[in-house]
# Entry
Amino acid sequence: MSKKILIVEDEKNIVDILSFNLGREGYDTLEAYDGATGLHLALEENPDLILLDLMLPKMNGFDVCRSVREKNRSTPIIMLTAREEESDKVFGLELGADDYITKPFSMRELLARVKANIRRTEMATDQPAPAAQDPEKRLERGRILIDTALLMAFKDGKGLDLTQREYELLKFMAATPEKVFSREALMEHVWNYDGYVGDVRAVDVAVRRLREKVEDDPANPSFILTRRGLGYLFRESEK
# Structure
């Protein structure tokens, strides 16, 4: 079955270009020209990915993204915008967006990001962890298993329903247990903001959301710990 992508964008020429190119790649598309309609389709049609403009009539992209996440939907969201301010990028990620592309963008790059996000959500979250194949592609950390070939993380043998950013964050920290990473370092390595200096609230929000999906008790985490004034670390728990 074809994957369904929701395009929320008020410029018809951009919608037409995106729909055409996504269609050529085998995706089905839904279109919304304002935020309110986009939110309705996101919740009713349950698309496999959302391409979301920020500057929209009736309801802006930030509010659409926030509303989708408040409904506990983990649908990948790639924000599209002409804005270049760093604060907008961070705010979008903080609200739960998985990626951010600034207009004008390369269609090849956009399609590559769409494919990567779709691939990560193809496997059912309740699928048990598969048998070991290539040990080098698997990070086994006690009750947590990260399969970098499948782009999936598992806890106690059950798949975790993580967004792209949550998966990347968990994988990066679990690669070196007990090492404390500052928020700035995580922005550089996980968000790919080289030499990042600025608002790091996106890291705190991502960690909080990741804890809600990984921890037995998010209020008393045992996997992802805080070192006050320093940052975060991953701790391997006993099986």
Remarks:
- The CA atoms of residues 94 and 202 lie 4 Å apart.
